Amino acid sequence: MTLKILISACLLGHAVRYDGKGKPLAHPAVERWKQEGRLVTICPEMAGGMAVPRPPAEIEGGASGLDVLEGRARVIEITGGEVTSQFIDGAQKALAFAKEHGCAYALLIDGSPSCGSVAIYDGSFSGRKQAGNGVTAALLAQAGIAVFSPANIDALDRLTQ
Fold this sequence. Notes:
Blueprint: E1 4-8, H1 28-35, E2 39-42, H2 44-47, E3 57-59, H3 65-69, E4 75-77, H4 84-100, E5 103-107, E6 119-121, E7 129-131, H5 135-142, E8 146-148, H6 153-159
């Protein structure tokens, strides 16, 4: 059985990001995985019930996705609204979807408070990033699904050949 790859919908060009846009990832491996039927597409934030477009959100106080999952931090919109429950719900749905489809890997957009796996914004809404992961990336990693960012796609490609 060929292992599947959970992929952020925005990386396939779907207009699901907070700003109503996609962020397509042009890479030969993505095209090959598409042709092989290996990609399982999700936007955790939309799965958690969030609209498009939506206010930008960040994990408060320089915390990480794991902190959110363990109840030590919240996800806050730039408008001040709290969206922690939507991010946790979306992460849980993404994990269930990944398990249902036999995903061993995930390729997620970096920087996002859901999908970031290398860096996320620091919670100040100033554009500063810090090392860390988003809520979905943290939950997937806890479940044993290897999470990759677009910057690490070549490593993922080597693992899947």
